[in-house]
Amino acid sequence: MPESVLRKRPAQIVAPPPGVITGPLPAPRSAPGRHPFRTPSPGPRPKTPPRPMRGRKPWPIGLIALALLFLGLFVVAMGIGAATNIDLTSIFSSSAKNTPPPRAFPVLDPSRPERLSIPAINVQAPILEVGRAADGSVDVPPLKRHNEAGWFDGGPTPGQFGPALIVGHADTRTGPSVFNRLPKLKPGQRIEVARADNSVAVFEVNSVEHFDKGKLPVQRVYSDYSRPSLRLITCGGRWVGGSTGYSDNIVVFASLVSAKNT
Fold first, then answer.
1. Model confidence over 91-113: pLDDT tens digits?
2. What is the C-alpha to C-alpha distance for residues 237 and 182, in angstroms, rounded to an integer?
3. One domain for residues 74 and 168
4. Of 171, 136, 164, whose CA–CA distance to 150 is shortest?
5. What are the Cα distances from residue 262, in Å, to 113, 175, 221, 232?
6. Distance (Å, rounded) from C-alpha 204 to C-alpha 63?
7. Phi, psi of 252 (to 5 degrees)
8. Domain residues for 85?
9. Shared-domain flag, residues 121 and 243
10. Does residue 47 sit within a domain?
């Protein structure tokens, strides 16, 4: 055996001092605030995320989109209403459905008409009652009373719902009659009818129209019950004689606008 090996001394085991308990090494102390079984992160720790800025919280995107949708529907509805003359704003109002529409005109109780006044053509005439003629048409006052107007008692009285009919002669062989100047009336002029209940129904002329007697718009003249109205009717146009007399009818269309006491 080589001499260098023989000079080596065997390994010495140093015993611990008396009173020291020998055994497995204790686990290392964990760093404060760190779990004892968590291994340290190999890389740098992430930075602390920034705090949000002070002020109002941002609106959720879904809420903004919903608000824009309702705004768009409202604008479209308003555009359709303007184009079609339909009020679509009531769609967005729940109370509007329970509110009755306002009445834009007065309505009077039935009362017999007594006197007609048309200042624009200087008419001041008493009113008598007329019925139907033998042929079924509306009768006219007798010729001896040609300066009086005739109210058709088969229809509404002036001021009630529907068209009250007052007829009169244009002329006779002796000269002009009560409605001779009726074609000169203009839209907007007033007609007043004094009634038996001491009230006066005030009408405003809508139009003055000429119709061939064979083409009279019966429904429009006699059957419009949408509001209180008045029809003044006389003859006009060309004289044809016989049972026809004049070829045309002149009809004044007027609507009730107010009422007053006599």
1. 334 443 444 445 577 899 999 99
2. 12
3. no
4. 164
5. 13, 32, 29, 22
6. 55
7. -100, 120
8. 66-98
9. yes
10. no
